[in-house]
Specification:
1 helix, mainly beta, 4 strands
Length: 60
């Protein structure tokens, strides 16, 4: 029987990459506990195209 948990997969997308106008997109997949973290997740991650650490926000 499958577990019914509060953890869901979310996609994180770079905010600075959109504004730069460069082709491609930096995205990461992670999980979060939707019971404890109801708002959208915001994490600093490495963007290989821009070659620096940028803010990645959760997309729908």
């Amino acid at each position: 029987m499958a577990k019914k948990g509060n953890r869901v997969q979310v996609i994180l997308e770079c905010t600075e990459h959109k504004e730069s106008g460069q082709p491609g997109m930096s995205r990461y997949i992670t999980t979060k506990n939707k019971k404890n973290t109801t708002e959208r997740l915001e994490v600093k991650k490495y963007n290989p195209v821009l070659k620096k650490v940028t803010v990645h926000k959760e997309i729908k």
